[in-house]
Amino acid sequence: MHLTLHAAGPEDTRAVGEALASFLQPGDAAALTGELGAGKTTLVQGIARGLGVKTPVLSPTFTLVREYRDGRLPVYHVDVYRLERVQEVIDLGLEDAEEDGGVLLVEWGDVVQGLLPQSYLLIELTSDPETEVRRLVLTQVGPGWAARWERLEGALEEWMAA
């Protein structure tokens, strides 16, 4: 199952993330994909806001992993863009998020899908640089979202593509 959404700009992208956050459960993961500037970190900012995180959410590009523990669930925000070997990703300890009851959000997650939990959301972002409109395609991978999918669709209806 998948959903196609349109967000009118950065704040709208954050609002999508905030709406999505209410459906996140301990151990959930999302792989975020898209070109540089497509809105991956912006979406994570909205998810964190929806989880009650007060700490400013910054890109983990140079730190690789940022943890936010001041919300409803711990958030592990990971960026694997600069990693060249699978062992480097394994060394990040992505499984710690699930074991900790947190939410794992992996930028460039398509390159490490085999290291993600059995069930996760694949979120593909594209952006029109002229209009700042972002297209988000959410795809359920594995069975973990099946029971929540219909409610998720309802919550994201205002952003659904016609």
Helix and strand arrangement:
Elements: E1 2-7, H1 10-21, E2 29-33, H2 40-50, E3 65-68, E4 75-79, H3 86-91, H4 95-99, E5 103-107, E6 120-127, E7 134-141, H5 149-155
Parallel strand pairs: 2-5, 2-6, 4-5
Antiparallel strand pairs: 1-7, 3-4, 6-7
Helix pairs in contact: 1-2
Beta content comes to 25-35%
Task: Determine the N-to-C terminus distance.
Answer: 17 Å
Number of β-strand runs = 7
CATH topology: Rossmann fold
Main CATH class: Alpha Beta
The pLDDT mean sits at 87
Shape: globular
Helix content: 25-40%
Structure description:
With 162 residues, the protein is an alpha/beta fold. The protein has one domain: 3-Layer(aba) Sandwich (Rossmann fold), CATH 3.40.50. Helices cover 25% and strands 25% of the residues. It has helices at residues 10-21, 40-50, 86-91, 95-99, 149-155, and strands at residues 2-7, 29-33, 65-68, 75-79, 103-107, 120-127, 134-141. The protein has a 7-stranded mixed sheet with strand order 1-7-6-2-5-4-3. β6 (120-127) and β7 form a beta hairpin. The two termini are 17 Å apart.
Short structural description:
The protein is of the alpha/beta class and 162 residues long. It is 25% helix and 25% strand.
